[in-house]
Design goal:
homodimer; about 425 residues; alpha+beta; Aminopeptidase; Alpha-Beta Plaits; nine-stranded mixed sheet; 14 helices; about 20% strand; disordered N terminus
């Protein structure tokens, strides 16, 4: 699949909205009410949402979304992995569509905003266009991707991964949940095995609005993050082996303390990330001691290492620095070390014209904004490999997500939807 | 209870053995065979021993030990917590006895030597005296303390703790194992509820031979450790609290990574111990991350701290340095910290005359020896509070103990028993 945008006359790419749409605004209150209504399906006592992929609650959420789409006159289809597309015709209806959306499945203790904001902001864009009687050159497709969270069925971003050819359909359908039910069986049970031929295969552009799931916008006081790409990541499992021994009877100079080696690794990971700012990230998140007893010197530590950066070359440099640091740590000691790579995803660079459309949308709305790189995975990261794509971030309180306490203000929700509206109009073209 | 030694005529305290006992040697092969025979009760396929306190196997081990003692003409009694005493009369039979022994209970995956060596070396001393027709001034009591290991019923060193008044009898008997059986019920079930009035209450001296359970003697090439005391210890639980957050979307400068704080604590504990050598010990043995997920910045770390030293004042200094280090670590960060003391035992200084008797025994045998401080707890540490006491250490391979791989050579076993023999003769006095 290639960029449909690049096939177009350059003069059409960024299509300044005519006066009639420049002042167009979404109905923030309607969007907020819609978000709250969807969140009731799987709503938790602590204000979050538990609506995991391909469950009965997911089915109910899909039904509600489809009812809303059909009320707007959209043509609803779904594909073989259950991704839902809802089409609003364009003036040039055979042109590749501009696709907008995200996902509506949640984590077990998820919030109301992760994913749902992007899908319902897309719905609000369409409602606003319909209410204003505005036609676009290109058709617009709302999309809701299947199983972005990956908590019931691994991997995450399953629906967009299958769509983008990163995950084989048969592989995805064969994945099982904790009860041994396959994703294919679950998809069939909720009635969402669809037909790929009824769905779009080429996107002229893809835009996804999402809560940031991080603290940057809150920290800088910006309302809109113009997402220019996503960090690549490299993950490792590291095992450091020393010698377990009695903490009382073993003098300091005769110890082989695996925890001391692990401590130096934690410091190296952080030092390396700090030296590649602003985009470098280095995290040791999982850490297990053996035998993990208060009066035994740790004989072994198993820990995870997570490096991320926006540029492939820098990510490679970080890993090279890490391997040198490990050599030094082991070289200084009697410790043994084993390093196993466990994941490797390259950085994603979103499409300049899609990024520009988002930035222009933020400027048009008068919103404080900044460029930002997504540190987390999103459906847009897979879709960005096969179509021009970009994302719009809005702040979420304290950066908290995947948590019932997740929160975004109605004002920021409205702002994000307005930016999506104007970026979509810009890419889809306003036919007068 | 006061030292009976101090009541004696100084000229009697270190009683040079007459020529007839100076060349006396234990029968190393007999001792080794006895050790191996006891180890068959609860023997494990991997060559270790699982004979936990107050089990049916413990009963069988006790029966075998008593059979051996009675074959030597010893008078066997046991007290209310099941400590076994086996008495060899002295020429001055009303004098307080010299008591020698250790324990025969093991860890679940214990070895053949921990404890059993001390009890059977004591038996071998008595066998050797009997075979040589040697009388001592003072009576000699072999002792086998109940439940030194504490793995089925906490606390460890239960029998000696009750005897020394450090643990209340009722408290000890009320402790339950994992199945809810009390120590009192288990003691009754194996038939070892005895009578305190039949047992000694004052010891003129107490000697315990034991494997080192550490690597020092092996490292220095010494055969005998003249144990001058035991390290005191202070334990703490430390909780460091930061903020859990996504490892991809949270930039380095906005993190509150609890693991980074914990890392600095591990370093401080080791640095403080290193600065108080040779006796300082500092260990972080238990370490738990929350949520402990590879793509989440650690929000909390709970860790244990174990400080030990041979001198109370230095141990206090180490803790003061630790508290200052924690203040610095927290002061530099947004982390919260909570410190809870969980154990506090003062150092034990063994009795100079008992120590001298052990040293003299090592010299008499021509064994390479050195003074050593026990880093682990032993029955002698409790008994040292109520009677003159000392210990004899022999090397164990790689310092490994509480492990089926635990090993001591027949040569070192014999050497340790010979030192016990001559130190016992010295303290008990040889009547000619």
């Amino acid at each position: 699949m290639t960029s449909a945008l690049s096939d177009q006359d350059p003069s059409r790419r960024i299509n300044p909205a005519p006066h009639s749409t420049q002042s167009l605004d979404v109905d923030g209150e309607r969007l907020w009410q819609t978000l709250m209504e969807l969140a009731e399906i799987g709503g938790t006592p602590r204000g979050g949402c538990n609506r995991q992929a391909l469950t009965e609650l997911d089915r109910q959420g899909r039904e509600l979304l489809i009812r809303w789409c059909e009320a707007e006159g959209l043509e609803v289809r779904f594909d073989a992995i259950g991704n839902i597309f809802a089409r609003r015709a364009g003036r040039e209806d055979s042109a590749d569509p501009i696709v907008i959306g995200s996902h509506i499945d949640t984590q077990p203790t998820g919030g109301k905003y992760d994913g749902c904001f992007g899908v319902l902001a897309a719905l609000e864009v369409i409602r606003t266009l319909n209410a204003g009687g505005i036609e676009t050159e290109r058709p617009i497709e709302l999309v809701s991707w299947t199983n972005e969270e990956g908590c019931r069925f691994a991997p995450c971003m399953m629906g967009s991964g299958v769509f983008a050819g990163q995950v084989a359909l048969e592989d995805a359908l064969s994945r099982t949940d904790a009860d041994g039910v396959t994703a294919g069986e679950a998809l069939k049970a909720i009635g969402y095995v669809g037909d790929n031929t009824a769905c779009p295969t080429r996107f002229a552009g893809y835009l996804e609005a999402h809560i940031e799931q991080g603290p940057i916008l809150e920290d800088t006081g910006d309302t809109i993050g113009v997402v220019t790409g996503a960090l690549g990541l490299k993950w490792f499992d590291v095992t450091i082996t020393g010698m377990a021994a009695h903490s009382g009877s073993t003098p300091m100079h005769l110890r082989q303390d695996a925890l001391l080696g692990a401590t130096r690794i934690v410091e190296a990971v952080n030092r390396i990330a700090q030296s590649h700012q602003p985009d470098g990230r280095g995290t040791v998140g999982a850490f297990q001691l053996l035998p993990n007893s208060r009066n035994v010197i740790p004989g072994q530590v198993i820990l995870s290492v997570d490096f991320r950066h926006s540029e492939s070359e820098v990510l490679e440099t970080m890993v090279a620095e890490f391997r040198r640091a490990l050599d030094e740590i082991v070289g200084d000691s009697a410790l043994g070390i084993d390093v196993t790579p466990t994941a490797d995803y390259p950085p994603q660079h979103f499409h300049p014209e899609c990024i520009a459309a988002v930035r222009q949308g933020a400027l048009a709305g008068g919103y404080a904004h900044r460029d930002i790189v997504s540190g987390a995975g999103h459906d847009a990261v897979f879709i960005g490999d096969i179509a021009p794509a970009a994302m719009i971030f809005i702040p979420c309180e304290k950066g908290i997500s995947h948590n019932e306490a997740e929160y975004a203000t109605p004002e920021d929700i409205t702002a994000g939807a307005n930016v999506l509206l104007h970026a979509t109009l810009s890419l889809a073209g306003v036919g007068e």
